From TrEMBL:
Keywords: Cell membrane, Membrane, Transmembrane, Transmembrane helix. Belongs to the resistance-nodulation-cell division (RND) (TC 2.A.6) family. MmpL subfamily. Residues 200-332 form the SSD domain. It comes from Streptomyces himalayensis subsp. aureolus. Residues 715-725 have a biased composition (Pro residues). Its main location: membrane. It is found in: Cell membrane. This is MMPL family transporter. InterPro entries: MMPL_dom (IPR004869), Mycobact_MmpL (IPR050545), SSD (IPR000731). It is a multi-pass membrane protein. Residues 710-733 are annotated as: Disordered. The chain crosses the membrane at residues 178-197, 204-224, 230-254, 282-301, 307-330, 372-395, 523-545, 550-568, 588-609, 636-658, 664-689.
Length: 733
């Protein structure tokens, strides 16, 4: 089947390339409009959680009691107090349009608070709070954009905080982060591709396909926004993922095409064989990555589920682009793929050596001499790297994801340190009676809540029919363990007789999100493991290999998770990476890293085992086939990993801490998997299994021999001839 795809695309190469160019131009114009098409907001919450159920009640007649926007004022002249610059602030606040605003409170119109709460301890700062009529974060951002300039006052510094401002600032940073990441990564990618292939022509092909897929990802995302709500936060991950996977897959195909040419095949045969072998690997690798992302639909939060939909679509697009555009380009390129060669320095030119003298071949044999000892030692190292995870404190996204100089983060810190009351730290308990709300019972309930550690005040603030609202002001950091304990105590407080209570607010939302992820993550992991197991069985006809692959991939993920906790929660390397530790790790992080890194690990596993299988079918030697398979794939796997690190490393430059966390985690996971796991642990465990690695019960073996996706016998592997024209190959031996 894959050979046929190569033949068709090579034969119709002119139309394939023209269609790709037209589509790329279309994507650059229409697809980039996706940035204005996101209507789903961030969508981190679980729609069935207690906090969201409470929010739905508050959307009704009872109404909300929240401060969606906090505008902080301070004179530009040091030492001036609110008494001196307050008139200017009061004038602009009186002139703010009230369309879309439910409530605007300040020192001059204090609402339910005492007016002194709006002034800092040194009386040099004041704030105003806004509650919008809508609780949808994207609608709040739109409302903020219409009135933001109206808050400006002459001679006064104005900063915007609260959830609405945080969302607006994250949105504005997202686009600039993508542009900066691509501006930094693309030149480095081009240089690395040239160094890896030692040919500018060969280097341009993966980059061309990567550009096609990256821009095409915008089209895919925009189409998805027409049929479902997509979280506004997926754009960073999806576009960079599309670029990375496309380059990864193109690298496999280009490398195999050159091998076939160097082994003496003509151009057409080389295209067909490369597509039949490396193309098959790309298809199974893409399927493995897509399966990993499909596991995200187990999560009810819009952020994770829409990430799953979008990622599966983009991965499928990357596979299709690699299997259609690239064979056409390879057919056009032919033997010219080695033109514009980059010469090595004279001192590095060495005579070609047999594969049996290669560095990775010797390393594989070294760990296979004592496979049990090697396996235990490597597993101990990976488990040790994951040990810090035991003390992790999970959080949910908040203003902490922003850089230290972002308004929302500055406002949050200022309110916590300079004011007696932080207007952003509000929770609400919704009290629902079977009949008309009993005010006395609600008051008694509020008194019990006021006794909970961390609750500064509990005040009944609204009644509507059978429902009542109690507003809670709290003091702990909403992402701290103390806040988690506080939410537990609040929810455990006995409700009024004949009523149920629903608690919402940032700390409660955080508890609900962490609980939802903790409950669903094992099911996602089970789904990904089982379906990946089935895909690997279809690819290789073995029952033991898929099980081994799943376990080894989980070990590399464990190491990445431990490192992330050590770096971001404990604060190590914070100066080098440029962030402020918050003493927690975002709970969405393990879900996304499992989805991305597990799929990529399967990517490399399929590529390696495909070559090992080729050697096994020729020689029947379980040890030698592994050593040769490792040797022949080491260069391409380490190169692919390096290129992917450069692409996802763009996340590390992100000013949004959540994205930086994903970037660091993926870099660690990919590097650990491509070196320690793939180069050392896989050979050791394969040696332990021996011939049993390819075992399956007789009925399954017969079924696979008939229906399994094995490579065609018409496309045998090229003979293991060296590439005299590619001195770079010696660097990995």
């Amino acid at each position: 089947m894959f050979a046929a795809i190569g033949k068709i695309t090579a034969r119709r190469r002119k139309w394939v390339v023209i269609a790709a160019v037209v589509f790329t131009l279309f994507a650059g114009v229409w697809g980039t409009g996706v940035f204005g098409s996101f209507t789903g907001g961030a969508g981190f919450d679980d729609p069935a959680s207690e906090s969201v159920r409470a929010d739905k009640v508050l959307d009704g007649p009872l109404g909300r009691e929240s401060n969606d926007l906090i505008v902080l004022y301070e004179s530009k002249e040091k030492g001036r107090t609110v008494d001196e610059f307050g008139d200017a602030v009061r004038t602009v606040l009186d002139g703010v349009p009230r369309a879309g605003i439910e409530r605007l409170d300040s020192y001059w119109h204090p609402g339910a608070q005492d007016k002194s709460a709006y002034v800092s301890k040194d009386r040099q700062q004041t704030y105003a709070t806004v509650q919008f009529t809508s609780d949808n974060d994207q609608e709040q951002v739109e409302a903020l954009a219409k009135i933001k300039d109206d808050f400006a006052a002459d001679g006064v510094t104005v900063r915007y905080g609260g959830v609405a401002a945080m969302t607006e600032q994250v949105n504005s940073l997202t686009g600039s982060d993508i542009a900066r990441a691509e501006m930094l990564s693309v030149p480095v990618l081009l240089v690395l591709l040239v160094l890896i292939f030692r040919s500018a022509i060969a280097a341009l092909l993966p980059l061309a396909v990567g550009t096609f897929v990256a821009l095409g990802s915008f089209v895919v995302l925009r189409v998805l926004t027409m049929v479902t709500e997509i979280s506004s936060t997926v754009i960073n991950v999806i576009t960079i993922l599309g670029l990375g996977l496309a380059i990864d897959y193109a690298l496999f195909l280009v490398n195999r095409f050159r091998e076939e040419l160097h082994a003496g095949a003509d151009v057409d045969t080389a295209v067909h064989r490369a597509t039949a072998t490396a193309g098959r690997t790309v298809a199974f690798s893409g399927l493995a990555v897509a399966i990993s992302f499909a596991g995200l639909v187990f999560f009810p939060s819009r952020f994770l589920s829409s990430m799953g939909y979008a990622a599966v679509a983009v991965v499928a697009f990357a596979v299709v682009g690699s299997l259609t555009l690239l064979p056409a380009l390879l057919r056009y390129t032919g033997h010219r793929i080695d033109k514009w060669r980059i010469p090595l320095p004279r001192g590095r030119r060495r005579a070609a050596r047999p594969e049996t003298e290669g560095r990775w071949y010797r390393t594989a044999h070294a760990v296979m001499r004592k496979p049990l000892v090697s396996s235990l030692a490597i597993v101990a190292v990976l488990v040790g790297l994951g040990a810090p995870l035991l003390g992790v404190n999970w959080a949910r996204p908040g203003e902490w994801v922003l850089p230290s100089d972002a308004d929302a983060k500055v406002v949050s810190k200022t309110l916590a340190s300079d004011f007696d009351t932080n207007p952003g730290q509000i929770m609400t308990s919704v009290v629902r009676f079977d009949g008309p709300a009993d005010r006395a019972e609600v008051a008694s309930y509020a008194e019990r809540l006021a006794d909970v550690d961390g609750i500064a005040s509990a005040t009944p603030t609204g009644f509507a029919g059978d429902d009542a609202r109690v507003t809670l002001r709290y003091t702990p950091d909403p992402m701290s363990n103390a806040a988690e304990d506080m939410v537990g105590e609040v929810r455990a407080t006995s409700p009024p007789q004949g009523a149920e209570t629903l608690v919402t607010g940032m700390p409660a939302s955080r508890v609900d999100i962490v609980g939802m992820i903790g409950e669903r993550l094992p099911w996602m992991a089970l789904f990904v493991a089982v379906v990946s197991f089935l895909v690997l069985f279809l690819a290789f006809g073995s029952l033991l290999l898929p099980l081994k692959s799943v376990v080894l991939n989980l070990l590399s993920l464990l190491a990445a998770f431990g490192a992330i906790k050590w770096i971001f929660q404990d604060g190590h390397l914070s100066g080098l990476l440029g962030f402020e530790p918050i003493g927690a790790v975002d709970a969405n992080f393990p879900v996304l890293v499992v989805a991305i890194a597990f799929g990529l690990a399967m990517d490399y596993e399929v590529f390696l085992l495909s070559r090992v299988r080729e050697e096994w079918e020729v020689s029947g030697d379980p040890v030698e086939s592994v050593a040769l398979g490792v040797q022949r794939t080491a260069k391409i796997i380490t190169s692919a990993a390096l290129l992917l690190v450069v692409v996802v490393g763009g996340f590390m430059t992100s000013s949004i801490l959540f994205m930086k966390m994903i970037g660091v985690g993926l870099v660690i996971a990919v590097l650990v998997d491509a070196t320690i796991v793939r180069g050392l642990l896989v050979p050791a465990t394969m040696a332990l299994l021996g011939e049993r690695a390819w075992w399956a019960p007789a009925p399954l073996a017969r079924w696979w021999a008939r229906y399994g996706f094995r490579e065609s016998s018409e496309t045998p592997p090229p003979p293991p001839a060296p590439e005299p024209a590619t001195p770079r190959a010696e660097a990995v031996r």
